[in-house]
Design brief:
The structure is a single chain. The protein has ten helices and 19 strands. The chain has helices at 45-61, 69-76, 80-93, 99-110, 114-123, 181-193, 237-250, 314-322, 337-345, 366-374, and strands at 14-19, 65-68, 125-126, 148-150, 163-166, 169-172, 203-206, 219-221, 226-231, 255-260, 274-278, 281-284, 293-299, 305-310, 328-331, 352-355, 358-362, 378-382, 399-403. The strands form six sheets. A five-stranded mixed sheet has the order 8-9-10-13-14. Helix 2 crosses helix 5 (114-123) and helix 3 runs antiparallel to helix 6. The protein is globular, with a radius of gyration of 21 Å.
Length: 406
């Protein structure tokens, strides 16, 4: 067991990673609920679980300790008081305001052991599971065809987004959508009350209750001195500035690089179009190179943030900032526009680096995988027919907690 958060790079040997094995929350997806639950398709749960189990197996085969969201959150709930506190905060984020309904749900959930309770919060609570016998609010009387009192969390198998382990600390993100903020709440309890997950020395750079949205797919730890963050569809300027202020004022990090990427679902986060795979190599989706703007945030006199627009080509900026003679950008799809668009839709640029020059990718992205191999990158592929329907790749599905320093 590897305790504590320690993550000063994207490529250092991965010691410990946080995953969530997809569960019954995926069975809530239907043509009528997909938009509400932020999905484009309906994965087949049995096969999705088999694919995810292979992902975890590849990690373990390479010496990585794999821990799971349900287990680590349950460890944090050591007392009935903490269990009830989590439920109360969860119901607040679920916008359940009826006193009668809240009391029914608290009684229902408190009757479970912590692991069963966390599993149920993730899977969603159906109306027919908690019959309300009291009428204390209009909400108690109104019925529609939607079967859930508390929505399931099918996006949780993308554990990258609710938080990011940065240096010796963590971001617990204010997610872009109300639906996903409950995922961050579970991580908050993990961080505060589970000493196997985080030590008392670990810092916190961002909180789910902060005002502006950030998501973990936009956060890349490029070196012990520098973090990159995407200004994207789901991460805001104000959120970036709040994070940068906290990080640069309270850690050894020297700067934050901001990558301004197109605001669209196809380019949802920075890591869907750009990841680091070796000391001097990055994957990139070719369609973002033209419109990409790069900005630098540093801490000036009196603790005031200072901003600077970077005017050079991306590979030159990266080489300069990382102190390297040159950096190579490996283009998704090998420069073929159709292959790039097809493979980027299935997260061809979303690689999880588990050691310098060793990555996990989806096997379906064969054009990009062959190119990585030719560039000297060791490519470990995993099946993805069902997992890829959620629009996220191996990096999206993993929250690195502890890495070896470079």
């Amino acid at each position: 067991m590897i305790p504590g958060i320690h993550n000063f790079s994207e490529i250092g040997k991965l010691n410990k990673v946080l995953l969530h094995r997809p569960g019954l929350e995926l069975e809530a997806l239907t043509p009528s609920t997909m938009e509400r639950l932020l999905f484009d398709d309906i994965p087949y749960l049995k096969v999705a679980q088999e694919e995810h189990d292979r992902f975890a197996e590849i990690l373990r085969e390479n010496g990585v300790e794999v821990v799971y969201y349900v287990d680590e959150t349950a460890k944090a709930l050591a007392t009935p008081q903490l269990q009830q506190q989590l439920i109360e905060e969860f119901l607040d984020l679920s916008l359940i305001t009826s006193e009668g309904m809240r009391n029914q749900l608290i009684e229902y959930l408190m009757g479970m052991d912590p692991k069963t309770m966390v599993t149920k919060l993730i899977a969603g609570i159906k109306k027919n599971e908690v019959p309300s016998e009291t009428v204390q609010s209009l909400m108690d009387l109104i019925h529609d065809d939607y079967p859930y009192i508390s929505d399931p969390m099918p996006n949780l198998y993308f554990t990258r987004d609710p938080g990011a382990c940065v240096g010796n600390g963590i971001n617990i993100h204010h997610m872009h959508t109300q639906e996903r903020r409950r995922e961050s709440l579970l991580l908050k309890y993990m961080f505060k009350y589970n000493r196997d997950f985080a030590s008392v020395e670990n810092m916190q750079w961002y909180d789910v209750e902060d005002d502006y949205s950030i998501e973990g797919g936009d956060v890349l730890v490029l070196s012990k001195d520098m973090v990159a963050i995407g200004l994207s569809q789901r991460t805001t300027i104000a959120g970036i500035e709040c994070f940068a202020k906290n990080l640069l004022s309270n850690s050894e990090f020297k700067k934050v690089l901001v990558f301004d990427i197109p605001k669209s679902r196809a380019f949802m986060h920075l890591d869907t179009v750009f990841t680091m795979v070796d000391y001097d190599k990055f994957t990139i989706h070719p369609e973002i190179e033209g419109p990409l703007g790069v900005y630098e945030i540093t801490l000036g006199a009196g603790g005031k943030l200072e901003f600077n627009a970077m005017k050079d080509e991306l590979q030159n900026i990266l080489a300069m900032e990382l102190g390297l003679p040159a950096v190579e950008l490996i283009r998704c799809g090998g420069g073929d526009l159709l292959a790039a668009q097809r493979e980027q839709w299935n997260d061809g640029s979303n690689t999880l680096c588990i050691a310098p020059g060793t990555v996990i990718t989806y096997e379906r992205n064969y054009v990009s995988n062959e190119l990585l191999d030719k560039k000297g990158i060791k490519v470990l592929t995993m099946p993805s027919a069902e997992l890829s329907r959620g629009r996220g790749g191996p990096r999206c599905m993993s929250c690195p907690v502890n890495r070896v320093d470079l």
